[in-house]
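For reproducibility, we list the full input for the zinc ion complex.
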Amino acid sequence: MGDYTDRLQARINTQRADVGHCNICGSFGRLTKDHVPPKGVPGPSGFDLYRIQQATGAFPLGRARTFQNGVTFKTLCKGCNNDRLGGTYDRALVSFCRTVSAMLESPLSLPSKINVRLQPNLVCRAVIGHMLAIDPGRIAAGTMEEPMKTYFLDSHAVFPSDIHFFLWLYPSQRRVQVRGAGRTSISRGVNPFVFSLLKFFPLAFMVTQYEGPEVASGTVSLQGMRRLGLTSDLDIVFPLRSIRSLGWPEFPSDDDGSAVLHGSGSTVAIPKAAKATPLRK
Ligand SMILES: [Zn+2]
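The corresponding predicted structure, in tokenized form, follows.
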């Protein structure tokens, strides 16, 4: 137990080396720091980063890695970071997040749903690029990450049919970064699924190979983007009445006997202004 809590409380590694293989394309060279999420999304800039296991409330929080200007992972080559993300994809993600944030924070109206327009093939590529930037030294691989990587690197590719992209409103300033976790349950009829996740105000984004009711209810699917070009618009609707709980899916819930398996790519970032209280909700 002592070893386990010691390991949990050691600070997270967000940069392994100055030179190495890019997490996404695998090319060898100088590595650059990727902001996860990109600079320009709404919210504060100072964060303390913890392993997700530290944030359950079961252990003392331990030592954080502090970032004054947004959390970064030194894991991407210049081409993936500066040209693809910074030069092409991030702008659409930042713009989309700012639009939703302005709608949520408008003092003038409280609608039952939010209609919003986005460029889904740019937004998805930005989110996928930042998901794969998590966890230094881990090059994209496996049945879920290979299609993510192919789609990210080829701007003409259609969104792969063997993965799914979901998003939902996330009204919290805590940020969550997960690369490849598994959620399972002992309840009958609840299926296990593997997911990667980025949550930062005002939205949560998830990639998974599963599309059953456990993930589809209370979320918005972007299936419609498969017939759209790189810069085409898509109109989506967020219902405001059925928002997913803040800790889903990265924390288990008591009511369905669920458990979540996390690896080294699961972290929580708490705004520096916030008190270090247990994060599980
Ligand atoms: Zn690269």
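The chain has a mean pLDDT of 91. The chain has five helices and 15 strands. Both points were considered when choosing residues for closer inspection.
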